[in-house]
Amino acid sequence: DGGITQSPKYLFRKEGQNVTLSCEQNLNHDAMYWYRQDPGQGLRLIYYSQIVNDFQKGDIAEGYSVSREKKESFPLTVTSAQKNPTAFYLCASSTGEIQETQYFGPGTRLLVL
Amino acid sequence: GQNIDQPTEMTATEGAIVQINCTYQTSGFNGLFWYQQHAGEAPTFLSYNVLDGLEEKGRFSSFLSRSKGYSYLLLKELQMKDSASYLCAVSLDTGGFKTIFGAGTRLFVKA
Asked: How many CB atoms lie within 10 A of CB B2?
C-alpha cells in the first residue's frame, strides 16, 4: 500500500524542548512539504524540499528545522525558538511537477504542556 | 501579496445543491485545487482546474475563471458525509513548487 505516514498522532512538548515530527512516504515522490494548520486558518507552508539534500524555507520557517537525507523521509523539528507551536502539522508529497496534486499524511497534533 | 477568500461557513440540506465560492489575488497562477478535509483528518484531493470552464466529476464540479480570479465548487445531491471543510488552493507560477491555501469553508449538511 503506497502512502504517506506521520508519527506520532499526538505530541506533547515541554517548555524549552525540541521535538521532531516524522514523515515518511513510499510513493517515490521527489517533493515533500510541511504545513501548519491553526483553527480558522488555511495551511501555511513551513518548509519544502524538491529533491534529496535540498530544502527551502516557506512562509513561516522561523523556529523550525528540517532535513532531507533520504527521498522517503522529511522530518520536521520544532525548536524551543518556536514560541507558539500548538497546531496541527501536515506533511505532504508530490511528484514535483508543478501541476501535480499533493498527497497529505494524517497529521500530527502538537500540544504544549 | 497573495490572498485567497472563501466563506467561513455554509449550511445546506441533505439532497440539495451547494456552491462554495473562492476568489484569489496572487502573483503568478498555474492552477487551482479544491481539497476536502474532515475534522482532524488530512485534506484529500477533489479537483484541479487549469483552464477556464467547468470540470465535472460525479457529484462534484469545479469552475474556474482566470480573468476574474474566481472559482467555485459545486456539490450535488448532498449527503451527510459531505459535512467537512473545503479548501481552495492556488498553485503559483513562481519558479518553485508553492501552493497557497485559503482558510477553508466549513460545510454543515443537515437532514
From this structure: 14
The per-residue pLDDT for B2 is: 84
Q: Answer yes or no: are the C-beta atoms of B12 and B67 closer than 8 Å.
A: no
Q: Which residue of A has its CA nearest to B96?
A: A98
Tell me the one-letter amino acid at B11. Answer: T
Query: Is omega for the bond preceding A39 within 30 degrees of 0, making it cis?
Result: no
A105 touches chain B (CB under 8 A): yes
How many angstroms separate the CA atoms of B104 and B10, rounded? 11
Chain segment A41-79, per-residue pLDDT in tens: 889 999 999 899 999 999 899 999 999 999 999 999 999
Cβ contact A105–B42 (<8 Å): yes
Burial of A113 from C-beta contacts in 10 A (0-12 / 13-18 / 19+): exposed
Name the residue in chain A with its Cα closest to that of B30: A99
Q: Mean pLDDT, consecutive 10-residue segments, chain B of 111 residues? A: 92 98 92 93 92 94 97 98 96 76 96 94
- Å between B94 CA and nearest CA of chain A: 10
Alpha-carbon A113 to chain mean position: 21
Do A48 and B100 touch, CB atoms closer than 8 A? no
Q: Which residues contact B22 (CB under 8 A, 6 or more apart)?
A: B4, B5, B6, B32, B34, B70, B71, B72, B73, B88, B102
